Amino acid sequence: MDIKTLVKLTSRAWSLNILAVLHSGVAGRQAALLSATGASRSSFSLSLEHLVGLKLLERNPGHGHPLRPEFRLTPLGVEAAEIASRLVKAVPDEGEFSLLRKSWTVPILALTSAPRRFSGIRCDLAPITDRALSASLYKLEEFDWIQREIDVSARVPFPTYCAANRGIEINQAIGLNA
Question: What keyword terms does UniProt attach to this protein (predicted)?
Fold first, then answer.
């Protein structure tokens, strides 16, 4: 999976949960998925539509009621569901997982296996604003998932960011070859 697909995938809060639940073998009916994820109906519905739009899920033809369809993973969705399942296992604590549901957390951690400058991360996550990136990095640093160090080897010192602790586990669970 490339970084652009990862950004699109994580732009909805419950996408990772839905994919992980489907990967674990829960039936693709909306009621079962909704119950297993613990999402609100509106957030769940938006995330489900988002996954169908990304062609990671499709309606299971011949199954389910027209108003309550059944969904299944597409071949692309199977790969994404494996990654989502690894992420859910890497962060079992619900309090920490709420940070993982934020839209930029997973892409930032995917890019920071090695020390990266702010501008390098921003370039790879093209639609992100400086404010969103700064706030995300600050929150990740607060949870100790990112380590910020000042590189003084250049004429003008600058900070670098690198995944640390749980952030490294998440980075490895993503397995992105950036």
Answer: DNA-binding, Transcription, Transcription regulation
